[in-house]
Amino acid sequence: MKEPYYMKELMNTPRDIARELARKYSTMTHDELDILESVLVPMKFAKGEAILKDGDVCKNIYYIDKGLIRQYYFKNGKDMTEHLGADRSIFMCIESLFKEIPSHLQVDALETSIIYALPKKRLEQVALHNVNIQILYRKILEESLILSQVHADLVRFESASNRYKRMSKLMPQVILRAPLLYIASYLQMTPETLSRVRATTLLE
């Protein structure tokens, strides 16, 4: 029998991920962890590989075990970064997920990434019969909505310098690992402005 890739690469097992999710979002019994583990679908993406393409319907909530992803869209011929996510974070294309319509957002792996999908339909089925999984589901959605609101407020109300400082606190691994071009796009500033802001921040 062929070993799963997470065994070969000494990555977390689905059980480990179920425990991580329970610690972060909801307390669970042993039986509830069994149920949550059964929902998880392990996936691996190479650097540069598409996780979700334009026109795909998003059917999953995704949890990044190890790796880095970029969520983006095209506007006036330019690609715009909507979200950057690193280890132990959640991402999804929320409108496509809930309306079951094709997404205009695309998601690529910026590093080799180990990701666990939580299929929405399966998660909702088990949540109907389990309060703690309902809580986990709700808290994941709340976190996603809050993160979107934080990003929207950053680009609407904060100066370029404050945008970068806030992102450094909220997403330190993304700041360290993502290409500057994508960080600048996420913060809605030019790469030149980002370079100046970074230089000034380092001097403070």
From TrEMBL:
Entry's InterPro entries? cNMP-bd_dom (IPR000595), cNMP-bd_dom_sf (IPR018490), RmlC-like_jellyroll (IPR014710)
Concerning Pfam families, the annotation shows:
cNMP_binding
Residues forming the Cyclic nucleotide-binding domain are 24-126
- SUPFAM superfamilies registered for this protein in UniProt: cAMP-binding domain-like (SSF51206)
Name of this chain's protein: Cyclic nucleotide-binding domain-containing protein
Q: Which organism is it from?
A: Segatella oulorum F0390
